[in-house]
Amino acid sequence: MRKWMTWITAIAIVSVLFAAGCSNAGTSEQAGNDAKTSDGKSSGKVTIKINFGDAELAKNLVAEFEKENPDIKLEQVPTDYNKLMAMIAAGNAPDIIRVIAATELPNYVIKGMALDLTPYFETSDVFKADDFLPAVNLYKYDMATGTQGTGPIYGFPKDWSQDFTLFYNKKIFEAAGIEPPDTAEPMTWQQLLDLAKKLTKKEGGKVSQYGLVYYNGHTAANQDLLLLQLAQTGKSIYSEDFSQADLTKPEVKELLHYWADAVKSNIGPNPVNQDPDWGGTSFINGKAAMMITGYWYTGLLRGDAKAKEHLDDFSMAPAPVMPGGTRMSPTGAAVGGIIYSKTQHPKEAWRVFEWFFGGKPADDRARSGWGLPATKSRLELMPNATNFDKASLEFTNNELKFADKFIGYNPYVSAQAAAAIFDKHFTPVYFGKDSVDSAADKMTKEMNILIQEGKDIAGAE
Hints:
The chain has helices at 2-22, 25-31, 59-68, 81-89, 105-110, 118-122, 170-176, 189-199, 223-231, 250-264, 279-284, 297-303, 346-358, 360-368, 387-399, 415-430, 436-458; strands at residues 46-50, 72-76, 96-99, 140-142, 147-153, 155-157, 166-169, 201-203, 206-214, 288-292, 314-317, 336-339. The protein is an alpha+beta fold. The longest helix is centred in the C-terminal third of the chain and has 23 residues, at 436-458. The model is unreliable at 1-38 (pLDDT under 50).
């Protein structure tokens, strides 16, 4: 609840100050274009603030860029989402803003915070549209239709993964005498749940081995998982124009019952059965048989002192599918960046953007294996030295065929706000304090209040 209120407060502040910021657009553009040299660069040094920290942009790379671009000084301003919103409200936003997940992009666009980069991409010698992998489309948004994946392009992924694929521990399956998942054909969600139940162990009334952990939180109901399951059957929590939410529909309540069963069975950490470790730690320590996560997790396995000694024990399997549904393997994040619409130096910001997302930093990220690159040409840079690397890369390349469909997030509701609603209203179901029907009704009402508030802030009809 506190996170939700913080988000609403921050966005409200942004909406109040946004109109005032619009009046400065002309002078900001002029400030970014004065005192140019013959090659189009500014004659004076310009400071470009970039919202990425040392973990994603090493100091040596910053130094290299500044040496090659003496007219630009890079200032790193890493910050969390709420602080970023406060900076925007105060008129002190970074020129390049880190987008924690591409699913949040429409939120930035409808609030006028993202610069339309279409003309920059169209004239770029670095970015080529025919080289883009599917995740790039998530940084496109059509304001007229409210469609993510088409229209002008506002940003670019730093890296991404198909986040609903499975990792599994072969040794745990062998010990249980159970056939491991097929590496080519997906299980249904029900088959996954049944398998997870078989692999869950208890000792002294406590879970000693989980059947399934989820990388992004509890193995329980959340917006990401429900939207994916529904999308596989052509349905959603939301209306086509995202103006309404309805979690009382039979197909939604069926899935809410599914996840309530998963929690009751304790197949993974959940609100009832808390665990201080996140799912990735449980899996890497041999305490979980399967994990829902993406290729980026190979970087963690490869870098762990113990895990890297037995990498061949781990393998990947396709994202589960609903019975009779469309096979999909989308990203759940695709961290990336946009250029702030009110930057005073759009041309210099674009040079930094082009370098960070399409130059040496992008090459280095691909070689690290901590996620997939955004371009096809960089796939050849990914780790391919060990049997584990080869198998993971082959699997990922095959799974790319199913990465062109996306989860339909609501542009008027942030991921943080949606998570708060699930926590507030569905957690009591797990403790037997409420029913699925009652919780679905409460979630629907609160979700629709947030949608209307989001539309009001964005000035949408």
